[in-house]
Amino acid sequence: MNPRPVLAEAGGAPRESARAAALWNLGVLLAIAVLISWQLFVRPALSVADNGDFPKIAGRYCIGPDPRIGDTYFAFTNLRWAISKEACWQSHYRSSAELVVLVALGLDHLAGYAPAFDLRWMGAAYALLFLCFVAWAQRLLRSVRPATARTLQVAFVLAVCNAVYIPLFNTFYMDTMALVTLVGALAGVAALLLQEQVDRKTFWITCIALGLLAGSKGQHGLLAVLCLPALWIRRGREVFPPLWARGAALALIPILAVIAFQAVVPENEGQVTYNVLLYRILPTVSNPRDYLREVHLPESYVRASGTYTYQLESPNHTAESAIAFGHIFGYADLVKFYLRHPGQAWFMLMLNLDSASGDRVLNKMSGNETHAGNFEKASGKPAFTRSRFFMLWPAVKHRLTAGKPRVFLAYIVGLITLAWWLAPRRPGMRALLAIFVAMLAFSLGTSMMDGLDAGRHLQIFNFLLDLLACGTAAFAAERFSLRSWRSRRPAIAGQPV
Questions:
Q1: What per-residue string of b and e applies to 438-453 under the rule 16 or more CB within 10 Å gives b?
Q2: CA-to-CA distance for 321 and 313, rounded, in angstroms?
Q3: Is residue 279 part of a domain?
Q4: Which of 42, 59, 137, 496: CA 20 to 30 A from 326?
Q5: Quick one: how far is CA 6 from the chain centroid?
Q6: What are 33-59's pLDDT values in tens digits?
Q7: How is 95-113 classified by DSSP, letter by letter?
């Protein structure tokens, strides 16, 4: 006999049986596992080509590309790597992504492949962590109406489990750790703000996810700090983590974010500000000398207008020159520059929104669009080929917004507005949306600080935006399913229909 549905504690809407919900969750989890496995492990397995960042993590563990493969930067991926002394490099960068590298190395040794290293071990480790966070998020949805929970999960599968994000698992990019842990962090933050009772397990899993996010990469670590208010908004609830636990999290998570930020090489500040000013802005103005005088740079830099920091003809191509440039025109100076010149800030915003507006982020250098390929050279695919696997939602968004930065901006503002309008009126929801919008703003803002390679920041921005679209779909399901149920239920002894 089928279990009878029970009534919700709030609102009286019917709940489905625990067994039906468990079967649904298991089916969704299996579907996600299949979509991930097909992309990461079935030939031709997908990855994202190295842009030069892989050694920042791999070099610390003496992992380098198989020398027989040759140079495949940007154009092709490379799944065949090797552990060797020649590949050892003590990078300045530190990241929580190193934990995934250690797991992948352990799997490689257990399988007996060392000193060869298959990059798909990274994919397996990230996939396992991702599925654990998804399963935990499903558990947190048990108190949500069936229509809401199912809409959210279907939207998540369509928006996330495609070739935009999943191929990043088969890489050494530090951004992948940020992407994966955002799933767990945001699920936990929502639970802390919205649940009537918060147990210690939910609190500590949320803190672990936030800690991993904080330590993922300097540019993304502060996203975890923006979530910290969720650990302190108690709303009079009797069951809530003790003060010492919240205090420990409040101290540890910012420390991890600072460590990740401090691990960025010293020359990075001068590199990115140089690229904004010299490569992006000066070529577009009629009075470049005035701008240089304003930021206390020699007029001789006019000759470098249009160059970026990695070019040999740039006066900023060495680490020493970049550090010196950062002392003259650093992050704070760039923010002040934007405040004095809102027109230039708007120009950079449109440039970044144009890059982020398609199904995948594109970097535009010297008038050319550049993007990383998803396939190995051995697959026979042309250079820079990107997979179109399961690109249902990304294709719709691409059709509507690609190459249209103002339309994309309208979509962003419209989506945020719609989410606020549709969101259920329950305690903690406004705080959750405020945190989410702050994370979106910060993620987009960091891209304004990089004039050449803002793609990594914009990819996390787009991921957050897609998660907001999933949440908005769930809000709509919540509102209209509840309205439909109320219109159909019979009147009960003196209660209005």
A1: ebbebbbebbbbbbbb
A2: 13
A3: yes
A4: 59
A5: 37
A6: 999 999 999 999 999 999 889 999 999
A7: -THHHHHHHHHHHHHHTT-
pLDDT value at residue 350 = 95
Diameter of the chain measured on Cα atoms: 85
Please indicate, yes or no, if residue 271 is contained in any of the structural domains. Answer: yes
Long-range contacts of 460-465 (CB under 8 A, 24+ apart): 460/175, 460/178, 460/179, 460/182, 460/220, 460/223, 461/356, 462/164, 462/356, 462/361, 463/160, 463/165, 463/179, 463/182, 464/182, 464/436, 464/439, 464/440, 465/412, 465/415, 465/440
Which has the closest alpha carbon to 37: 27, 49, 45, 26? 45
- For residue range 108-119, list pLDDT tens digits in order: 999 998 899 999
Domain, as residue range, for 277: 265-319
Q: 334: part of which helix (H) or strand (E)?
A: helix 331-340
Q: What's residue 369's pLDDT?
A: 65
Ramachandran class of 368: left when φ > 0, alpha when ψ lies in -120 to 50, beta otherwise: beta
Distance, in Å, from the CA atom of 263 to the CA atom of 442, rounded to the nearest integer, reads: 20
Backbone angles phi, psi at 99, to 5 degrees: -60, -40
pLDDT of residue 5: 39
Q: Residue 69's pLDDT band (boundaries 50, 70, 90)?
A: confident
Give the tokens for residue 482.
Answer: 């509840």
DSSP codes of every residue in 367-432: TEEE----SBGGGTPPTT----TT-HHHHHHHHHHTT-HHHHHHHHHHHHHHHHHHS---TTHHHH
Answer yes or no: are the C-beta atoms of 81 and 55 closer than 8 Å: no
**Structure confidence at residue 365 (pLDDT):** 60
Residue length, the chain?
A: 497
Question: Could you tell me if residue 291 is inside a domain?
Answer: yes
Q: How many domains are there within the chain?
A: 1
**What are the tens digits of pLDDT across the range 432-450?**
999 999 999 999 999 999 8
Q: How far is CA 198 from the centre of its chain?
A: 26
Q: How confident is the model at residue 235 (pLDDT cuts 50, 70, 90)?
A: confident
Upstream peptide bond of 298 is cis (omega within 30 degrees of 0): no
Q: In this structure, are residues 409 and 353 in contact, taking their beta carbons and an 8 Å threshold?
A: yes
Asked, for residue 375, whether it belongs to a domain, the answer is no
* Nearby residues of 327 by Cβ (< 8 Å), 6 or more positions away: 270
